[in-house]
Structures are given as C-alpha cells and as structure tokens.
Amino acid sequence: MTASEPKLILLFSGKRKSGKDYVTDLIQKRLSPELCCILRLSAPLKERYAQEHGLDYKQLLGAGQYKEQHRAEMIRWGESKRHLDSGFFCRMVVCGATQPVWIVSDCRRMSDLQWFYSEYPQLCASVRVEASDQTRAQRGWRFTAGIDDAESECGLDQGVDFDWTIRNEGDVTFLDGQLEGLLSLARERTQEPQYTQDSIQSNGQ
Ligand SMILES: Nc1ncnc2c1ncn2[C@@H]1O[C@H](COP(=O)(O)OP(=O)(O)O)[C@@H](O)[C@H]1O
Ligand SMILES: C[C@@](O)(CCOP(=O)(O)OP(=O)(O)O)CC(=O)O
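# DP6 complex -> structure
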C-alpha cells in the first residue's frame, strides 16, 4: 500500500552512464522534493544484496568502481528474485512514497514498465535518456560483455514506444529545453483546481 495516490509517474530508462541519475535529480530540483520523489528500483535490490553478502550498501549506491565490481552478481541475484515475482522490487519502492510526482529512475526490463502501467493506468509516462557511446565513455563507461549485452542494459532497447526521449550529451541549455515539456506536464497534473465564483455558482445549479 502507498501512503497517497500519485498524480504522475515518470518511468525512466537508459543505458548506464547515459545520465539517468543526473537528469532525474535535475527534474526533482526543478519541481522540488516536496512535489517529486525519486524511486530507484536498484535501491532495495542493493540493500538486500548487501545484507545477504556482507557488502557496503552505501558504496553500492555510489557511481564508483565498487558497484561495478559487484554489478554482474547483483544482476544475477536480482533476476532470481524477479523470476519468482516480477513486481518484487517495484512494490518495495512505491511503499511510503507520498509525493504526487514519482520518478522511477531505473526501469530496465519490460516487466518493470508492465508492472507500473498495470498498477497505475493513466498515470504513467515512459522516458528514455540517451547519450552516445562516446559521451558515456567520457563518463567512465567501458563495454563489458555479460552486462552491456544482457537484459539489464538491453531489455528496453526494442518494443517500447517511449513518450519522451531526452538527449543528454552534456549541454545544459539543450537539456533544460528538453525538460520543459515534462516539467509542464508535472505542473499541470499537480495543480489544484482553481475555483472561481462563476464555476462555484454554475456547479451549484
Ligand atoms: N548533462 C550532464 N552534464 C554533466 N555531467 C553529467 C551529465 N549527465 C551525466 N553526467 C555525469 O555522468 C556520470 C554518469 O551519470 P549518471 O547520471 O550516474 O548515469 P546513469 O545513472 O545513467 O548510470 C555522473 O558522474 C554524472 O554526474
Ligand atoms: C543490479 C542492478 O540493479 C544495478 C543497477 O545499478 P544502478 O541503477 O546504480 O546502475 P546505473 O545507473 O545503470 O549505473 C542492475 C539490474 O539489472 O537490476
């Protein structure tokens, strides 16, 4: 059960180092943390994985080498959980989310999108963050077989007609411009209805 019903759910996906965290942090800053929360499917996964394997959860959350060293095993472990219950991590992240706008920052598999679309029809929009391999490499990405060619990275490469695509090569002005539509949508959905004297009278008739 969630603490309150959301008004908009933005389902983000993108390759590693495309800038999902960067872009979603920026949206949250523009909207405010009171209006918008960021839900990371990988957070409960990393927490449980760290507990079971005696690892440092905080370091797994970071963008450094520690996470990369454990990524392949975490993927395998997460897949075994999802195999039994595809909504396992989705249900965990929505628990306690109280803001009207939810950003799910790391959808990776069709089952992630399907879970949200079936639980919250009418509220979801899918957003793809894209950056060239060259840009991603400048941010520290190196192709790793078994990760970059596996479902965790490629599960949404085909078969999804994304509602929004954000190109994130590093130009802040260009990025800001692309976010305008998403920010307007979020503001529209979260606006309180405006009651004028006329509308009150006509409703009362
Ligand atoms: N538009 C941008 N301008 C400057 N730095 C960026 C931009 N987008 C991403 N980065 C940086 O690139 C790195 C990877 O981005 P991140 O958001 O962690 O990617 P992902 O979550 O997709 O793996 C981070 O250090 C981040 O700060
Ligand atoms: C095991 C993972 O959940 C690890 C994901 O960690 P992050 O979401 O931090 O990864 P990037 O932002 O792409 O670098 C992947 C999975 O397949 O579930």
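# post-check
Residues 8 and 123 are 5 Å apart (CA to CA).
The longest helix spans residues 65-84.
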